Predict the 3D structure of the following.
Amino acid sequence: MDYSIRRVTIDDYDSIYSLWISTEQSERALNPVDDSKAGIERYLNRNPATCFLAYENNKPESVVGIILTGHDGRRAIVHHLCVDKDHRRRGIAHMLVEQAEKALKAEGITKIFGLVFKDNDSANSFWEEQGYSLRTDINYRNKSLDTRVKQGN
C-alpha cells in the first residue's frame, strides 16, 4: 500500500481527531481547549506550512497519520505525531517527520524539539532512530491558564 502526504487543513479536523482518540498515547496528550477544532484552527493559521497528514494513495479521505509542528521563529516543536495502529511500521511516521523537517528548514528553523511520554517506549525508540537526542539537563514545566486544561500530568 502506498501513501501520500499533504498539508493539513481545518477541514481535516474530524478525521484527525478520530485518529488521535484511537490510540491511548495520543488521546492522553489531548486537552479540550488546544485540541478542539477552534484550537487546531488557531494552530494551523499560525503554522500553515509545517503540518502534514498521510493518506492512502487514491483515498485522500483516509487519514492514516499526522504531524503538527510549529515554531516561534527560532525553534520548532513537534506537538503531535500519530500514525494509525493498522498502518504502523510502513515508514509513514518517518515520511511525516522528514516532510515537517524540510518545511521547518525552509522557514529558517535550525532546531526542533518534541515531548514524548517517558513510558512510550516505541515512540522514544522512533525519535532516537530519527536522530533526536534525549535531553536530561532540563526540566519541562507547564502552567494552565484555562481551568478546562488540566495542570501538570
